[in-house]
Amino acid sequence: MTVPEPTSAHAAWLPAEAFRPIGARRTLVLGDGLLVETARDEVAHACARFGGSLLRRADDRASGQASDRASGRTGDQAGGQADLVLALATEAHLPAAAQAVREESGQDERPIGAEGFLLARRGEVTVVLAGGPAGLLYGLFHVVRLGEAAFGGPRPVERHRPALRRRMLDHWDNIDTHPVMGQVERGYAGGSVFWQDGGPRGDLTRVRAYARLLAAAGVNAITVNNVNVHATEAHLLTDRLGDVAAIAAELRPYGIRTHLSVNFAAPIVLGALACADPLDEDVRAWWAAATARVYDAIPDFGGYVVKADSEGQPGPFAYGRSHAEGANLLADALAPFGGVVHWRAFVYDHRQDWRDRSTDRARAAYDHFAPLDGQFRANAILQVKHGPMDFQVREPVSPVIAAMPRTRVAVELQVTQEYTGQQRHVCYLPPMWREVLDFEPRGPEGPAVAGLADELVAVSNVGDDFYWTGHPLAQANLYAFGRLAWDPRLDPAALLDEWIDLTFTPAAAGDPERLRGTLHAMMDGSWLTYERYTAPLGVGFMVRPGHHYGPDVDGYEYTPWGTYHFADRDGVGVDRTRATGTGFTGQYPEPWSRVYESAEECPDELLLFFHHVPYQHVLRGGTSVIQHIYDTHFAGADQAAETRLLWQKLTDLVDPELHARVAELLDEQLRSAEEWRDQINTYFSRKSGVPDAHGRRIY
Ligand code: GCW
């Protein structure tokens, strides 16, 4: 296999330079399996560039005579022992250093795990011992990440294995281009990486390169089409299955399994059955047969993703069946082959009457799903958006996550920046994700979300744009998502360093400290900056309806979507208390049900999510709500201006084209931030009649 490095795409966090420390050394790769071969190809490729060599057999002697080379160089450098050993822990013959690591770690009862690996350095040799081929590949990418540091002083045995077994990206990609949504729903990076001109891409090199990037970040599953399954895309399950198989073939060598979004009404749409009732025998037989054909074509197929009874998609409600019955239909079809169904919990009434104050969209997922806990099959995974509404810049954590102890749960994040600047604004999201993962639904005595979730899923931000993500700095979100899914305790700032060091290889640039420092100054706090100049205090949805970019305070106020702020001349916010509101606070266990219920105890940043308060209500931080709105909007727009200036000082340290792309986007971010600031401040100043305490310009 050739290592994919398409010239039509930016190298992102795998530039050739990142492989220099390995490529210039001697690496022994021991083991069999497709992913071990991928690791060999990677090493050989790096060696061809940097002069090192790939060794294929262990000569189990201290001198470790190299027996074979696959480097681009000829000559005599193959002699001597390997500098790096990547081996399956089960290999019969290991070189001495690796053998020593194996013996030492043998004391530890914990299994390494198929995706895990041990890392150590003994003498002059860095050793990766993997629990399986996937672990070996992940170990290789870990060494890439460490760079020269992997070959420094002694290193005690470290155990690495993913915290979450499935680390998945959903693509909201369509084969056809939708007249309003474009090809990728909520995509801000051009067309689809998978589909083009009504079919699969002819050249799938880019798909392979994408898989490589994702494997280096730890992702191991992908859904290749939109959860809103339109007419053409429905056929991926049947007559267009070959297209899916072709993509799966590109993802497989990097350990990524392929999943498909399917239409719940497929038996009607594709099978000409009269219904799609999950309890109907013909329907069940249809799914069983269709699924068997999928596995004929793609033996390691991951499973289905389903958006049912949501925003117009068909579902089990049409037949008076529950969502557990719906999910189990597909789970049963997949079970014989080891597949899983991801069943989305994003079920709510999108045809609500705005006059109706009793219906609360935030309540919907819990109301639908909490009563079903315990009814789902073991291979059905409930996929829950991290917040109760819809990926707003600030939401409380969804109460569904803690309400399903007997159900497998995947927490869904949105890497694509639908509501967080659409990849025109810098918005580094890991600090938000960490808050979600660290949240303890039952307080400090109970587990955090990271411990409750079985899986982490995110909507990808990737398209066919040269930089993959439109905004080059949005690559950091994709990278960090994979890493956090691997280890939810990783620090967002440290992840940013990893990404910077790999992507910009600052060691090679003139002034790595300045580059790093500036990018941290621009990105570390960018989520909070975005929050400041957009919708205040957890209220959400003050965006332009439809495309969701830019401010429109009342844009959704009188629509059927259930997304209201209820601002009037006296106050703003949604009363979700048990005492006087929708009762949503009651979906949380203690202590949060009590904390959120109280306007005094509720965290400031979520106040308007839970409470309707007067503009003069004093926040825990000491300022009034109205003054907070003014202050944060002025401060947020100022920070956007500052970010733009910071970037201007980096012209000498980054590639000119990348610099120009980001500079252009920062101009737009500033324009947009000022528009947000002025519209929000003007709106609330006019509504409330309260002037800004500092007399700043409001229109
Ligand atoms: O955030 C909303 C988006 C829809 C999306 C939906 C969902 C795929 O506006 O475009 O549809 O969520 O998550 O299903």
Could you characterize what this model shows?
By secondary structure, this protein is α/β, with parallel strands linked by helices. 34% of the residues lie in helices and 13% in strands. The chain contains 21 helices and 20 strands. An eight-stranded parallel barrel has the order 7-12-13-14-15-16-17-18. Strands 2-1-3-5-4-6 form a six-stranded mixed β-sheet, with helices on both faces. Helix 2 runs parallel beside helix 4 (133-146), helix 16 (512-523) runs antiparallel to helix 20 and helix 17 packs across helix 20. The termini are far apart. It binds 4-O-methyl-beta-D-glucopyranuronic acid. 4-O-methyl-beta-D-glucopyranuronic acid binds at residues 172, 185-186, 227-228, 307, 346, 390-391, 418.
Secondary structure elements and pairings:
Blueprint: H1 20-23, E1 26-30, H2 34-50, E2 53-55, E3 84-88, H3 96-105, E4 117-122, E5 125-130, H4 133-146, E6 155-160, E7 166-170, E8 173-178, E9 182-184, E10 195-196, E11 199-200, H5 205-217, E12 221-223, H6 231-234, H7 241-251, E13 257-261, H8 266-269, H9 281-297, E14 303-306, H10 323-334, E15 340-344, H11 364-369, E16 380-385, E17 408-414, H12 430-438, H13 449-452, E18 455-459, H14 475-486, H15 492-504, H16 512-523, H17 526-533, E19 571-572, H18 592-597, H19 607-610, E20 613-614, H20 625-648, H21 656-688
Parallel strand pairs: 1-2, 1-3, 3-5, 7-12, 7-18, 12-13, 13-14, 14-15, 15-16, 16-17, 17-18
Antiparallel strand pairs: 4-5, 4-6, 8-9, 10-11, 19-20
Helix pairs in contact: 2-4, 9-10, 14-15, 15-16, 16-20, 17-20, 20-21
The structure holds 4-O-methyl-beta-D-glucopyranuronic acid.
